[in-house]
Amino acid sequence: MRGYLKKMAIAFVVLAIASCSSKSSGSDDGVEPEPSQGTEVPADFSLLFPYNNEVCLEGALVADQPAKLMINAKWEASTSATEYDLSVIDSKTGEEVAHTKTTNTNADMVLTKGALYQWSITAINQDKSKKSSQWSFYTRGEGVGNHVPYPAHNISFTADTVNDSLAIEWEAADEDNDTLTFNVKVFENDLEIESYSNLENPSIDFIDSISGAKYYLVITVSDGSSETTTTSAIFEYN
């Protein structure tokens, strides 16, 4: 009997120690903390101004910099974003010419007159981000005399793999609204294969193409008194 009571006493002590250990390892109020929810990715949003593929006629003159304009870029708010990163690329050089971080949905950018730019916004929330689409625009040129037409842009190739041919289109603009004509040279693997003079429409219906070859254009835009030239990106026909 005495041995039985001794075993019961030992069991009681063990249970008491286990109970105390369990209480001390938990939180003070007995409620487990909720797991963290993490950072939300900013939601999709759209650019607003300058308008895509248009001449931006707005812009304030910059003191002591007669060749510059200050343009205020605008975009929609992105849900969960805490700040925005504006990036502006010079289309001619491919270099970033403006880079601004802001908590607002607008920012000023100082740019050269009569030039083509591409801009985009990255919405940021801590370590998460969402990038907008990329828009192109021209800054207005000098307000005297004849304006040089803007270079051809948005050059696109459409492949017809059934007939082994390419259709090509591009866009161009002129601040004076002059009638524009186009001289176009087509290159295949660095060899000139086609040449067109005084085209009135910004397109070529079809040119023969070879699978695996690389194509690009040199387009000269003329308004009758002045002209400008641009070279397209390389298109690989597969």
Please characterize this protein's 3D structure:
This protein has 238 residues and is mainly beta. The protein is 10% helix and 48% strand. It is built from one helix and 18 strands. Strands 2, 5, 6, 8, 9 and 10 form a six-stranded mixed beta sheet that branches. Strands 13, 14, 16, 17 and 18 form a five-stranded antiparallel beta sheet that branches. Strand 11 (153-160) and strand 12 form a beta hairpin. The longest helix has 24 residues, at 2-25. The chain is flat and about 55 Å long.
Portion of residues in beta strands equals: over 45%
Category by helix and strand content: mainly beta
**Helical run tally:** 1
Low-pLDDT sequence parts: 11-18, 20-27
Proportion in helices: 10-25%
Overall radius of gyration: 32 Å
Q: Categorize the overall geometry.
A: flat
Give a count of the beta strands, DSSP E runs of length 2 or more.
18
Mean pLDDT, to the nearest integer, reads 84
Q: CA-to-CA gap between the ends? A: 95 Å
Order of helices and strands: HEEEEEEEEEEEEEEEEEE
Largest beta-sheet characterization: 6 strands, mixed
